[in-house]
Amino acid sequence: MNGDDTNEKKSNDYIWEPNRKSVSKLPTSEHTMDENRREMIRKALDLDIIDVRSYAGYRGDMLVEFTTLEKDTVDSLKKIAEELGLEVTVRQDPLQIYQVYCIALTEDIYGLKE
Q: Can you say how many angstroms the Cα of residue 83 is from the centroid of all Cα atoms in its chain?
């Protein structure tokens, strides 16, 4: 052994750079929820949903995730989201549980290179 610490990270991936903005300073997270996501949640509360949560996605976009067992509810959520200008993605697991992701795109956040 040459005395090197094998647990030491050789990458700069985990080093904070002073010119980077923290997540709390990004335009989409100024400690308030935008009106489209608020309205989406208000309308969804009248539907047959199991759960709802809101969070930032890996590209900085803001998401509202709904969980339901009902296909009709999925269709209603998609319609509401599209009326509000939100993008929608639906996942269905083997137990027939639907997860509906309503995405508020943020143009001033960088995306991953394609």
A: 19
